[in-house]
Amino acid sequence: MCSEKGTAKPTVMIENDRVRVTEWRFAKKGDNTGWHRHEFDYVVIPLFDGVLEIRLADKEIVTAQMQNGIPYFRQIGVEHDVINANDFECTFVEVELLENQN
Question: How far apart are CA 4 and CA 13, in angstroms?
């Protein structure tokens, strides 16, 4: 999924022909995922209350308010870099809905 390495730490927790579940850990303010384009629809489950900054392909920066345990869904093709805008470590779980390869 990622096309540029960021400073946030991804840990793949589950990967099979249907889903990929990745924990993204941002140790400090400013840590980021790196620029990437999503190849699949996905769901994000924040494990914190706080804010992420999202840099979009058109250079726009948006602020996304996160609530612990409240998921959100995005469709294939999203291109962005996600940045920790908090003064504390934060984590979210990303569930990518992979195409069935059978």
Answer: 21
Task: Give residue limits of the domains in the chain.
Answer: 9-97
DSSP 8-state code for residue 100: P
Residues 63-102: tens digit of each pLDDT: 999 999 999 999 999 999 999 999 999 999 999 999 865 5
9-97 belongs to CATH 3.30.2290.10: no
DSSP state of 6: -
Strands of the chain, DSSP E: 9-15, 19-26, 36-37, 41-46, 50-56, 61-66, 72-74, 79-84, 90-97
Which distant-in-sequence residues (6+ apart) come within 8 Å of 58 by Cβ? Answer: none
The helix (H) or strand (E) run that includes residue 74 is strand 72-74
Residue 62's alpha-carbon distances to 21, 52, 81, 98, in angstroms, are: 25, 8, 11, 27
Residues 6+ apart with CB under 8 A from 4: 34, 35, 36, 81
Residue at 86: amino acid letter: N
